[in-house]
Specification:
It is a single chain. A 10-stranded mixed β-sheet has the order 4-2-3-6-5-9-10-13-14-15. Strands 1-12-11 form a 3-stranded antiparallel β-sheet. Strands 7-8 form a two-stranded antiparallel sheet. By secondary structure, the protein is α/β, with parallel strands linked by helices. A hairpin with a 7-residue loop joins strand 2 and strand 3. It has 12 helices and 15 strands.
Length: 436
Amino acid sequence: MRERGRGQDVRGLRGLRRGIAVALAATTVLTAAGAVAVPASAAPAVAERLAGAALPQPTGPYAVGTTALRLSDPGREDPWRPGRARELMISLWYPATRPAHDKERAPYMVPSAGRHFGGQEGAAVFNYGTTPDRTDWTWVRTHARPDAPPLLGAGPRPVVLWSAGLGDPRTWGTGLVEDLASRGYVVVTVDHPYEASEVAFPDGRLATSVFPALAAQPGLDIGALLRKATAVRVADTRFVLDELAALRSDGRLPAALAGSLDLDRIGMAGHSAGGFTAAQAMHDDPRIKAGVNLDGQLHFPGPDGTGAYLSGVAEDGLDRPFLLMGTESADSGPYTGQPGWAAFWQHTRGWKADITLLGSRHGSYTDAQALLPQLARQGAVGEEAVRRDIGDVRPERAVAATRAYVGSFFDRWLRGHDDHLLDGPSPRFPEVRFEH
């Protein structure tokens, strides 16, 4: 693994997240003690009403259904919890027969996961600066109907895997996921237990992240931890691909939904560490035909958090289509300013493009873009935290651009429908810059 940029300071790496300890593609840095302190003033008044927020409406022509499924890999020991088999939770999002009425809409998170996510040790606090216990994350509703009958008649549908950033749960990207499903895709969101802030299993267990405890260990080798996290994520992804093939015939999914999976047309998208995961999994597994990296680095730091050591996908590139989407965070932007992206660009033989959303920050490609401004108006997150995470791009424009470019990419490479949005700058989105 080659090193680039040995003199790079730790603050220039989006490889460190507050509180979760390390993340691939974040904008904040760990405190010296390895965890961020929550000020006493952040504690809400007992009688204060909990804040809520709404996800933006999907833009596609189809209603959306969703179902969750536990997967178990008896042949693989859990790398974070030795002595037990690796378990995952996934959700499938797909075109459904009719829209969900208000009371039918699936919650953003189940209650136990929502309480932890917004609590003192959850990713909403550590990754996005929300006030602990001030937001009712179970009140937030998706636009999908749980276990809805899938819409038939269109034949098998292309499949897109979604991977969230390190520390984030699989739900943190639902706005984009629902939009893809409303456009005719089956989207599979993947949790990575014991790395994600929390993962709720059907039997009531809540698997919480081991990363805060790891961050507090003296002499932590940050680079080694990040390499392990990426390897685990890629192994999880490849196991999910294996399971999708089995799900088509083993009865764990309704026959109509199982039959809608077109496993010859698989794409993958992810944010931050999830974008890194999409690239590396595509490098390692030819079943993934096209991928999108939403602001995720493609290199690792050294043991002390400095330096830039290239990943396998950066060193080798890809021979299939891939889209890089950067932000205006200080350590993001075009591929020319990022060692991992620059090497990837140089070595990739397949179709590629690199765009930057002007005025954006690292969280702009996530649900933070839509949800944080709403929470700020209710006093559940500070204005400075909002600016740090999503910048000053207008929320509705950032959401529209993200959906349009990701949707255009997958339409082009998984369905053969090219709207030419990715040919170059478009008057529809003047806030999107193409890199050359």
